[in-house]
Design goal:
By secondary structure, the protein is α/β, with parallel strands linked by helices. It contains 4 helices and 5 strands, in the order βαβαβαββα. It has helices at about 5-15, 30-40, 60-65, 90-100, and strands at about 1-5, 20-25, 50-55, 70-75, 80-85. Strands 1-3-2-4-5 form a 5-stranded mixed beta sheet, sandwiched between helices. Strand 2, helix 2 and strand 3 form a beta-alpha-beta unit. It starts with a strand and ends with a helix.
Length: about 100
């Protein structure tokens, strides 16, 4: 799971990529639990780019998207937001959405 900036994500979106982005913070306990689970899922979805954005380093971007708590996971199909999930959900929540991309 690579770290990404707003411009990197927007470039991927403009290329019509499928993207899962976890907005996280180093100090966030649930984020630390969710990230390894998402990393394990990554190999099952080679057509989806799994990325992470540190909200403390990218505060303006997080605010522009209305992200007010972490972890928040956004799933995009190109520029279309397919799902916004707040909190560390069970894996099946993410898999169900990813399976439809």
């Amino acid at each position: 799971m690579d770290s990404a900036t707003q411009s990197q994500i927007e470039t991927l979106q403009s290329q019509n990529q499928k993207i899962l982005v976890e907005f996280y913070a180093e100090w966030c306990g649930p984020c630390k639990q969710l990230m390894p689970r998402l990393m394990n899922m990554e190999s099952n979805y080679p057509n989806v780019k799994f990325l992470k954005v540190d909200i403390d380093a990218n505060i303006d971007y997080a605010q522009s998207l209305g992200i007010m708590s972490v972890p928040t996971v956004l799933i995009y199909n190109g520029t279309s937001l397919v799902n916004k999930s707040i909190g560390a959900n069970v894996d099946s929540v993410y898999k169900k959405i990813l399976d439809t991309l």
